[in-house]
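Quick one:
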Amino acid sequence: MSSVRLWQLVRLVLVVIGMSAVIWLLSIIFQYTYPFVLAFLLSLLTVPLVNLFERKANMPRALGTLLALLIVMGLVSGVIVIVISQLIRYATIAAEKLPTQIETFTAFAQRVFNEKIAPFVNDAYDSIERLNPSQTTSLEGGITELGVQLGAAIGVLSRGLAGMLQSLLGALPLVLLLFIVIVLAWFFITKDWPSYMRQIERLNERKGFNEFEEVMLNLRAALFGYARAQLTLISITFGIVLVGMFILRVENPLSFALLAAFFDLLPYLGVGTLLVPWAAYAAISGDWFVAIGVLVLYIIVIVQRNLAEPKIVGSHIGLNPLAALVSIFVGLKLFGVLGFILGPVIAVLLKALYNARVFYYVWRFIVGPKPVTPKER
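Output:
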């Protein structure tokens, strides 16, 4: 191996080790700084509103920041209150109809038992009566063992549920502390944003700053684009569900469509959290028109979401649909629910690094300087 190739290999190993070390270090740092990272991302979205208050209303920066935070948290809290109130309302309606539905279901279950299960049980009992004593003993032992295993499984499940409930209750103080820290960091970062920008502007003359600035601008555009993409997607879901509610002649279709749009915003859960239990309830109640209609509506929403999401997200954050689909899938596999957001953001960050020629500079470092020809000498 020539000395040139050897040094290229050494530099490649150094780059791989350096990148691995940086990723490992960032993952460790993120475990302790994620509230401030979240506050920084929220500030990226809030700063334009604060600037508008400061520029148009001559409002002090601190007051404008406080007002912007109150508006955002008020909107989020209002949506949550509306969702919870609507869920309580529908639960109350279901509870009012529950006695009649229970009576109908009980009659249905009794009819099924008399027509299907009872004859089978009688045949099984007659078959057991014809068994010899040893076979009867073996069968009883098997049934007893099955009961023991079932009881043990129920016990494990009960202890697991109790432990999960205890963990949730124990985590409430930490959740409250995190909320306070994020809100305070969000306020201070947004309020002092111009000061941070002035400090960064002093770095304009330094080598490499322009590339860093380009990466940050691309990241900010991606965050705004991702928010617009999700708003577009849930608006489409809202429209589809609203039309479906009118077709199914459901009372208060607007409120139900709003609920569906809210659940559609939640990763993994989606509108199925709302529509599937409703379809099951309608089927048990004997309302097959609504049950089948809701299931068809659910399929339409899921198909639309999966077909439109890569295209809409990709167009809003500057990725082609295939790259957006890959980033969403890989993000979900690597980071779970957070990957639904982190995947596209990381993809945009990589694209920004590519546009800033960071990968080109890394490659030039690996291959080394071009050999000087005699003519160039």
